Amino acid sequence: MHESMKLQHPQADLTLFLEALRFSAQKHCDQRRKDSAASPYINHPIEVAWLLWTIGGVQDESAILAAILHDTIEDTDAKPEEIRACFGDEVLKLVLEMSDDKSLPKQERKREQIAHSPRLSLRAKQIRLADKICNVHDIAFSPPDGWPLARRIDYLEWAREVIDGLRGANAMLEERFDETLALARQKLTSESEGNP
Ligand code: ZN
Q1: pLDDT per residue over 55-70, tens digit each?
Q2: Overall domain count for the chain
């Protein structure tokens, strides 16, 4: 059976998928999203994997595992060797593609993400799309505490630049991104006019 068909099969082996959920949940256990409700961080990678599978039609085991794990190297103490040992080289490579170089200052990391976007592998582009759909939605509808409007508007424009660099990777996810961005812009415009 083709690798990408594996999870569609009724008797698919979910061992690695459950292992990835467990690994990511443990690594992110002390983290919360920055919204005022302080949502559990793990909601985010689960949403990214859901978007890939359901909206993007990316029914590919390595991509789904990498989506679940995509923030563990950047944002937790997870080590590349741990990911390689549990999930193999292919998944590790995707997670590394999704990880910013934290030794760089924030503004430079943001520029790097725009510059790297066209050079990502196809699966990393699809994960990036799902990640940005989630983040753009959250910045508009459950924003980080204390972010002024201008910073949220900047975020939306930066995310658009990152996505413009990888267009052609997945039409469904790109359409979803464009819809989410339009709604997010509307929301911020309405806030700038004094509506909550
Ligand atoms: Zn993310």
Answers
A1: 999 999 999 999 999 9
A2: 1
Model confidence, pTM = 0.92
Annotate the chain with three-state secondary structure. Answer: CCHHHHHHCCCCCCHHHHHHHHHHHHHCCCCECCECCCCECCHHHHHHHHHHHHHCCCCCHHHHHHHHHCCHHHHCCCCHHHHHHHHHHHHHHHHHHCCCCCCCCHHHHHHHHHHHHHHCCHHHHHHHHHHHHHHHHHHHHCCECCCCHHHHHHHHHHHHHHHHCCCCCCHHHHHHHHHHHHHHHHHHHHHHCCCC
- How many Å lie between the centroid of ligand 1 and the Cα of residue 1? 31
Is 75 labeled as catalytic in the residue annotation?
yes
- What is the tens place of the pLDDT at every residue in 16-44? 999 999 999 999 999 888 887 888 999 99
CATH number reported for the structural domain that contains residue 72 in this entry = 1.10.3210.10
19, 35, 47, 75: which one is catalytic? 75
The residue segments making up the domain with residue 20 are: 3-192
Active site residue 81: no
